[in-house]
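Hi R.,

Here's the chain you asked about this morning:
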Amino acid sequence: MHRSLLALPVLAALGAAPLAAGELLVPLTAGTAADGTTYGTRLWVTNSGGVVRRLTWTFIAAGTDGTRAEPAGSLPVNPGTTVLTRNLIPAGKNGLLLVSGAPQLHLTPRLEATGRTGGLRAAAAGPLVGGADLAPAGTTLHLHGLSQKTGGLITDLYLVNAARSPASCTVTALRDTGTRLGSPQPITLHPLSLRVMEKALTGFGGTNLDEARFTISCDQPFYAFARVAKPGGAELNVVTPAPALGSAVDAAARLF
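And the predicted structure, written out as tokens:
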């Protein structure tokens, strides 16, 4: 996914996002498979303007209160150039990057699996969270096509609270037949935070199944996605919320 910071001031003015003008959240996924394959997120930044622009970032570790995190630094991006960011986050850590900058800055994240020898094994476009991506408080997101297979694909669930207040959420797991897996689980999220549920379907009693689904609702603006991957293999997928047919497309959404 490619995103410009251009639309964020407009969205903030419309009241569509709890993030401040010019802010985006970049979810960061990490992990190491038994064979030594490592998982991480890379981030590219392009400056389409005619003068140097700076990207400012704050790293928010998973499971922590993002309102207490200190700004980590800033990166200058020369006009017309693209920069692959490095050393913005601690190695091997799940979390969020809260980034801000001028509307001339364009961001693209990518989830990657890297083999023990450093070769790229798999990659998938990563999500960016802000504005029209956020689900309003009290609504429900659906994540489809999820798996939990012994020796095969597994699903990790990522929940983002984009508000600067705590969020109470409910996660429900279902089979493709519509029958529930286990019981819905209440989840409390810190302000401006990421919660990672590894092998999430197993927490609902789900084993050896495909085509499962999560529904997620929260009482604050939020976002959710899943990483579906075969540990150590070349399969890596990012499952983002399924749009509803017939949904109205407002002016803010058309900015993207």
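The longest helix spans residues 8-13.

Let me know if you need anything else.
M.
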